[in-house]
Amino acid sequence: MPSAENLILIGILLLALVTVESGGYFLTRVVRGKVPANRLQQNFFRAGHAHAAVLLVLSIAILAVISHAALDGFWLWLARVGVPIAAILMPAGFFLSVIGRDPERPNRLIVLLWAGVAVLTAALITGGIGLIAGGIAAL
């Protein structure tokens, strides 16, 4: 059973999925030509939308089991909130790096994408190792 803190965070993440849903509506307007966007913007909008949804769902899955990890302090915090943080940073990098009228390439805000990648990688490695160690300890 997830802890009370994890249950609250799972509830917040479920509500955050509603924002992804509204982003899906925006994306349908883009692909129907109702919102002007060049090919780069369309591709980045799709990638941002997909990453947001997948990372939020992955966050919920992790929170359901992370209390069994052999982690504490900073490492437990990273394993708990790293993926939700990446779920903010990565889509923000995709969306914000192509704002403006007809950009030819992503702007400097693409750094948000790479920061999200770094946080995601650290959280997944930490959580994975912690869960393996917790599982071994429970044998």
TrEMBL record:
Alphabetized UniProt keyword annotations: Membrane, Transmembrane, Transmembrane helix
Residue ranges of the TM segments: 6-27, 48-71, 77-99, 111-138
Superkingdom: Bacteria
Protein name, as recorded: Integral membrane protein
Organism in which the protein naturally occurs: Agromyces ramosus
